[in-house]
Amino acid sequence: MSDKENQSKKVEQLEQFKVNDKDKYMTTNQGLKVSEDEFSLKAGERGPTLMEDFHFREKMTHFDHERIPERAVHARGSAAHGVFELYESIEEYTKAGFLTDTSRQTPVFVRFSTVAGSKGSPDTARDVRGFATKFYTDEGNFDLVGNNMPIFFIQDAIKFPDLIHAVKPEPNSGIPQAASAHDTFWDFVANNQESAHMSIWAMSDRALPRSYRMMEGFGVHTFRLVNEKGEAHFVKFHWKPVLGTHSIVWDEAQKLGGKNTDFHREDLYTAIEQGDYPEYELGVQIIKEEDEFSFDFDILDPTKVWPEEEVPVQIIGKMTLNQNVDNFFAETEQVAFHPGHVVPGIDFSNDPLLQGRLFSYTDTQLTRLGGPNFHEIPINRPKCPFHNNQRDGMHRMTINKGSVAYHNNSLADNTPAPASEEEGGYVHYQEKVEGKKIRARSESFKDHFSQATLFWNSMADHEKEHIINAYSFELGKVVSESVQQQVVNMLAHINLHLAQSVAENIGVSKPTEGGSSVTKCSPALSQTTTKYTLQSRAVAVIVDDGFQGQEVHDILVDLKNKGVNPHIISDKLGVKEGKDGVKVEVDATFLTAESVLFDAIYVASGEQSNKKFKQDATYFVQEAFSHFKPIAATHDGKQLLSNAGVSNAKGVVTEDDKQAFVTQFAEAIKSHRFFDRELV
Q: Is the model's pTM score more than 0.90?
């Protein structure tokens, strides 16, 4: 769907709302029809406002309380509705109905988010991304509350407040917003070296996703699956995007933060509106209980991955997001996730970070959503019936009938009554637990560097270069030379080349000793092993009057048929006419559309245009080239590429034959980026 078609659809929706509301009168919240909504009640036309103006007081009081506290973390989010469908039953491992019955379609609601920034921060900040899914199952809600990275900074939840205090804007200045590039964060990392593994993930391309549609999701923690026989297996959950896992580059991310603060939010919304529904396959990694201690890492440690080459991911189903929210506040802002929302067949492990989250999530909703009845907000309500003896509290919606609100009872025949396990009642896995009360952690949690080295070893050359540059940028923003040196010394435990490269870039002493004996790698950790597709990729098509009309028209039709979304870019809005009379309507101008908003560039004309057009088009192309994007040109557009100095490079297509051009350009778009340019 083109930009113009999107705009037309929005206009139609607005018109529809007008039709729906034309016979409705304005009322107070008590249903009283309002005769005037522009002037408050006064004692005379120029007199003081009267306290008896109940309409003014109601309207203003509601406005004064419209904003609720933003989330302490994950404040900036985007969300959508969808459905989950199971490919194959895993009843061998769990009795959860939505994971065993392939005939079910389970409604879902997914919220994506950044972690560190406020609600007003940019989408493209270097950050972890939240990936939280609420499954509205027949047995109750199951919340898979994860991130786009499979591990976390800390091992025990008691340190979570410290981590967030460190990464948030520094309290004396309130700076910087949505950024980890400052002293307190890196001081925390240097002095809490369990964060070493997560820090290298955060400095990788994973922290700069191309879109929410193109990033993985992970449950992070180790959970348990329990089957009908009461047998348990350890499990980690994965979301694999059907479009593959792709990223933007740092310069692009910074520019997008200014050009379009809502880049990821708009991408998700627009994709769903035009029918490019985001899809993610659900995978599980499963370990037998008897194999808990069979690995060179502790499987309960949330700072560790289970390498996919050692514990394969079994794909079992697919989630499709097919409906945008109707009201951002009521749904995206008020949705309340909790890792403790489970269903029969899913249980917890002793991961100490998970154990702490089981308390924290309920506690935070009490403040954000005004009391214990947040489960009655429509977006949070289970779609299956629920009954209990809980009563009252702020914002209670249910009108309970009868005099009995306790158990056991005889006045209501002892209802509602607990369900047996056979009747679907939740029964915790009977794990044997014994030990002395102690504040400590297992020795098996004390290896902080081997998997960070595994991650480094698994990266392609350009990914390693991005990590070096990211550490250099972040530590270059740190004022304390002591903190800079501490972090560099820590990096030496991961990889000596990494540490020395960063040290040279920021001007501190290079470590001479260090490195790691870990030589293995996990190809699954590199984004170069992901899927590549051109579906829903956005292509900027630069045109001016006098372009090769029919040929360009045919090329765009062919690209659309392959799933590409072309957008016509020129110097002015309106219509551009080709040499043969074929016309195209301009979607955006150089002033309103920058190269960073697109995945690829096609220059259909421009060399014969005026000086200003050529200047704007040349900058557009050169910027895209510097971000390693596919670029193509036909006819006089080829000369513009040549003059811009971007010809004869990988990912630049200038084929004259129309069909060959489409084929080659489509393959280039599918490749996403050409990082070899960076390493020349």
A: yes
